[in-house]
Design goal:
CATH topology: Sulfite Oxidase, Chain A, domain 2
CATH superfamily: Oxidoreductase, molybdopterin-binding domain
Mean pLDDT: 93
Oligomer: single chain
Order of helices and strands: HEEEHEEHEEEEEEH
Shape: globular
Strand content: 25-35%
Distance between the termini: 49 Å
CATH architecture: Alpha-Beta Complex
Low-confidence stretches: none
Bound molecules: ligand MTE, molybdenum atom
Number of strands: 11
Length: 206
């Protein structure tokens, strides 16, 4: 078939149209998987690894690696959006939803309205509890049917795909529910407390 500029133009346009509804404003599509870490990749010993759920100071539940992997597992395929403007389509994650973690400690829902994610190495990030339940977030142990790469959060990371990816704490060690909202690591440094990519909530005041 003849390669005319007109037919090429007609082929390109529907692709752009389709992506317009799938890429949040100010984002561009990548096919690699960039690494964004505020510090070094921690060395983690699976034999000592623990994941905890806390309501303030009260421990609701704690899992070893084996116990964590015995919890119900869920797979999701989703787009992700980093505040540094890259978006990646159709990422596949497997892990335990926060709903199933709460169920495992006998709760129907979050015990408090806000939550702080805590990571090995000290990274934190905060959210309204409503944003990590009802299927909106999981603690993932696999990406693309393989264990996470160390720099992407091995052995476990949060995945909250509807918000900018800094909310998806890598090397996660626990969730701590809180009665009031408190800023995490990037939020204290001027990033938006919520981070909705569709509203371009990158920084405080956006
Ligand atoms: N523990 C921890 N989690 C983190 C970060 C970090 O520095 N430390 N960076 C965040 C940011 S800004 C982004 S965009 C994503 C990047 O995840 P990736 O490196 O797997 O792409 O992880 C988030 N989770
Ligand atoms: Mo980020």
């Amino acid at each position: 078939m003849a390669e005319s500029p007109i037919s090429r133009g007609f082929r390109a346009r529907p692709r752009l149209e389709a992506h317009r509804h799938r890429i949040p404003p100010g984002q561009h599509l990548v096919t690699d998987f960039p690494v964004l870490s505020a510090g070094p990749t921690p060395a983690v010993d699976l034999a000592r690894w623990r994941f905890s759920l806390r309501d303030g100071e009260q421990m609701l539940g704690e899992w070893s690696w084996d116990a964590f992997n015995a919890l119900p597992q869920t797979e999701i395929k989703t787009d992700i959006h980093c505040v540094t403007t890259w978006s990646k389509f159709d990422t596949v994650w497997r892990g335990v939803t926060v709903d199933d973690l709460l169920r495992a400690v006998g709760r129907d829902g979050p015990p408090a309205p806000y939550v702080m994610m805590h990571s090995i190495g000290g990274y934190t990030t905060n959210l309204p509890s409503a944003d990590i339940v009802d299927g909106k977030a999981m603690v993932a142990t696999q990406f693309d049917n393989k264990p996470l790469d160390p720099e992407h959060g091995w052995p476990a990371r949060l995945v909250v795909p509807h918000l900018y990816f800094w909310k998806s704490a890598k090397w996660i060690s626990g969730l701590r529910f809180m009665p009031t909202n408190e800023p995490g690591f990037w939020e204290e440094l001027g990033y938006h407390e919520y981070g909705d990519p569709w509203k371009e909530q990158r920084y405080v005041g956006d």
